[in-house]
Structures are given as structure tokens and as C-alpha cells.
Amino acid sequence: MEFHWIPETGEVPLVADMSSTILSRPIDVSKFGVIYAGAQKNIGPAGLTIVIVREDLMGNEIEGTPSMFSYETMAKAGSMYNTPPTYSWYMAGLVFEWIKDRGGLETMAAINKKKARKLYEVIDSSDFYSNPVEPESRSWMNIPFTLAKPDLDGRFLEEAKKAGLVTLKGHRSVGGMRASIYNAMPEEGVDALIQFMKKFEKENA
Question: Do residue 120 and residue 87 come from a single domain?
Fold first, then answer.
């Protein structure tokens, strides 16, 4: 699921985990008190976290908060209160340059929206595949789908792997399949998945 709107919270600071959304499209950060995002989706290797925090919210930690968890401490130290994960920083920098070279977040938004639309259209037009999320709440980045015959899940994954399509197994809490199509996944990869899905449906419907 994904929120495609920003709620109005008045004086209450709005906090969001944008690990899957950040860098996939432009975001008005001024509407948030805190934005938290793990790097492992659209930024770079796991082990790096990005936090965008409103200045007036820093320095209000509860008593006993370790200094390592203080956004104010981190900000005053230029994010180097401790030894930073230098490799992850370096890789993130390369990703930022790659996005800028492609045209920025507006370009990424157009690409990501197109990739998601193509895959959802295939799922919605089929009686063999289905998506359990209402259209207004669907994610651009992670697209789950189930097969009409759950006993074919194993065969789907096995044949998909032979076709070069991996890590499609759904989350353990919901089953089925899940296609993660973050920034690094080119449109050609989505097209390859669609082609395989149509072939598998034709052979197993």
C-alpha cells in the first residue's frame, strides 16, 4: 500500500517512513516534521539511513536517549558523530548523480509511474492474476499479485527463475508474488516480467 496524498495534521508534526518512496518522485518535504528512509530501496546499499528533520523538532529527545539516536547530535556533527558508512555514502552519491543525469525526480516519477501502470494493467485485465490492493492505495514500487491457482506458485517461481526473473516470492505474511520495481529496475525488466506472466497464464490457465 502507498499513500498518494499528504494529510493535513495542523500543529501535529507529520512523520513518514519513505524508505520505498524516496527518490521515486518529487516530494514536498516542507509538509513533514520528520522523513525517515532506509537506503536499501532507491538510494544504495543497506546500512545507510537518511533522515530529513525539521530544525525545531531537534533536541527534544526523551530522557535517557543515547546520543547516537539524537538527530540534534548528528546534525551538529555533520552526520559524522561516529564513523559513517563510507562505502554506502559513496554509492548513494553515485545514485544521486545518476538520477540528476537522467533528468531528476520528475523524470524518475514519469518512468516509475509508467512501469507500475503497465504491470497493473496486465494484472487487472487477467482472470488468472489478481492484485489485493484497492487501486487508490496501490504502490508504484512494490506490486503484489496472486495466482488464481495458488498451487502453481512454486512452478511460477521456478520457471520465472529460469527466465532470469528472481526474488518474486511474495511477503511471508500474504503469500503470492511481489514485484519490486524500484528506480534501479529498468522498464525492460518490467516488460520481461509481463511477457513471462502472459506466457505462464496461457500455458496454465
Answer: no
Residue 17, SS3 per DSSP: strand
CB neighbours of residue 1 within 10 Å: 11
Whether residues 85 and 149 share a domain: the answer is no
Q: Is residue 3 in some structural domain?
A: no
- Backbone phi, psi, residue 169, to 5°: -65, 135
Could you tell me the residue range of the domain that residue 192 belongs to?
105-204
**Which percentage of the chain shows pLDDT scores above 90?**
91
Q: CA-based angle 126:130:131, to the nearest 5?
A: 135
> Mean pLDDT across the stretch 142-152?
96
Q: How many residues does the chain have?
A: 205
Q: Using an 8 Å Cβ cutoff, are 182 and 141 in contact?
A: yes
